[in-house]
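README: folding subset

This subset contains proteins for which both the sequence and a predicted structure token string are available. Records are stored as plain text. Below is the entry for Relaxase/mobilization nuclease domain-containing protein (420 residues), shown exactly as it appears on disk.
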Amino acid sequence: DPVAHFWLRWPPQDSTKFTPDTLRTLGREALKRMGVDISRHQYLMTVHGATSPDPHLHIILNRVPTVARRVGRDGRMHPTACWNAWHSKTRAISVCRAMEKDHPGLLTVVEMPKIPKRFNPTRGEKALEAKTGKPCPRRELFDAVMTALKDTAIADRDKYREALQARGITVKYKIDAGNLHGVRFVDRHGKEWKSTKVHKNLTVATFQDVWTRHTQKEQRVAQDQRWSELKNTVLGEARSANNLQELKKALQARGITMHETTQGLSYTIHGATFIGDRVPLVARRDVLQEAWDRRQLWQDVNNLVTEAIKGARTFEDVKKALQARGITMHETGQGLKYSTMVFCARNAKTVYLDADKVPKGCTLDAIQQRLDRQNARREQVTAIARNEITRRAAAIVAAVASQGKGEEEEDEYYNRHRPG
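--- output ---
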């Protein structure tokens, strides 16, 4: 993949210290520490805070340098190497730790729990496993302890005890004044182990840090689910509503409370409140109002097109009639496209209705078909009127001839009784 994507995340308390310039500086520093020559690679940095309470910076990098070839020491052209260190998790962690130390007043130092990665058997345990062909008791206990510890659904000591109890392992906690001070295990053979004897990094701090991270992850997942539900619900109800009051009633029926504040709209769903930047983009007041105004505008355009067709005979007549009403029609390769001038906050701007969003009755084919039907009806009405005049004239001539009137009398009679 020629594109690398990673992100920098900080604790919530750091968000008040950051400005756009600070984030830009930190992002560039992280790229340089990762070994990226920012003068040769294209990159994009985006601040993202809509799906997480923690501020984080997304960095998208083109691993292929802008200069594909360079002049080597031998004077020949050589291909420039791509940046291939983006997948190094160890290097990324080292960069983050180094930046925390270099910016003590700006970045909070986050202590990572030292989770055991692999089992380190002793010489005697290796000999026992080689002799029996089975894992030693400490390895069995280590595997069970680590499997339960890595389970993100286990976020407290009670669930952890239940998970190991299902594997035949008893967990004993040493608790003093409500605080955890020690962890011991009794394996299925009845032998009791201190947690640090199973592995030196299985300390009380490690257990508490892991459970805290799992709890925070559960909260983030639940928050993300509420955010997605809010976004989809507002998006669906806004299509049938015409203003904020109608939308507020519709959301109230769905269990979502909308609050109108001076800073904008805020929402409460399942006990969680979204306000400010945490509100989905489609649920913000200005976006909703613009969508409703645009929908009403194009409904008016549809009505104006219908009115213009009634008095037109050709497509150019329709175009001129719309132009007189402030609607400009553009013919493109994809179809018709409309534009009009609207005034928003004392500023005038041109709003376009692209060809793929034009109502069915306003497309080029639909307008031409309606014009053809309308012209056909006009010709039919004209033909009927012409036939009626001819029939009445023939009847008058026949009546005059049957009465034997003279030529002058026929002309006088015809002028008095002629149709129209």
